[in-house]
Amino acid sequence: MHSRLEEYLDAVDRRMESLPSWERREWRDEARSHLHALVEANEELGRAPDEAVEAAILQFGEAERLGEELRRTSPLLPRNVKEASRQLAWSTHALSWFTVVTVGSLYLLLFGLHRAEEFGARGGLYVPTAISLFWMGMMLGGAVLGWGTRRRSLGRFVLGTYGLLMLAALVLTGTTVVLDPLTTLAGVGIVAAGLGLSSRAADWGARLRDRFTPTP
Fold first, then answer.
1. 113: which residues sit within 8 A by CB, 6+ positions away?
2. How buried is residue 211: exposed, middle or buried, by Cβ count under 10 Å (0-12/13-18/19+)?
3. Phi, psi at residue 17, to the nearest 5°?
4. Which of 123, 160, 179, 197 would be a feasible disulfide site paired with 116, CB 3.0-4.6 Å?
5. In this structure, are residues 129 and 115 in contact, taking their beta carbons and an 8 Å threshold?
6. What dihedral do alpha carbons 208, 214, 215, 216 form, nearest 10°?
7. What is the pTM of this model?
């Protein structure tokens, strides 16, 4: 029984030769444990030992196909590491762009609010202009991110980091102290809408990239 399982694991391992030996060893130990559990479960169902082994192997999957899939999807494969690094770089650039857009729009918004009395009706135009520029900037950043990474959403890294940056900026500048609940709610809604538009744009950018440069 053990020799048949080891032969199966050897066949899988041969398809994973490009991966580090320690990762292959860890997978082999875990797979061996699962296989033994499957064999015991099959024997409890009344199967003979040899039949139980073959049934367990069949449940695990064809060796060559399984090994190739494990090799292809491993995060330690050089190609996958390169792809992950590329996506992180694009995400970092997009995050920087989102920050610049947010700060610029906020400055324009505050400038308009403070100078509204001086500029009269023209001062009121600063608010919708700032919001529109914010949404347009977020959409542009999302589209570029989707094109560069082929991802159809902003990703947890971008969303999480952007949220933390905005929260830190509000707390450190003392803005949270002077904001009333209504203004805070409106601001959250504007930012949420911007992120939603950006995510839609990321989907559009990824679809456009797939259409003109299909994945080989």
1. 123, 126, 127
2. exposed
3. -65, -25
4. 123
5. no
6. -170
7. 0.57
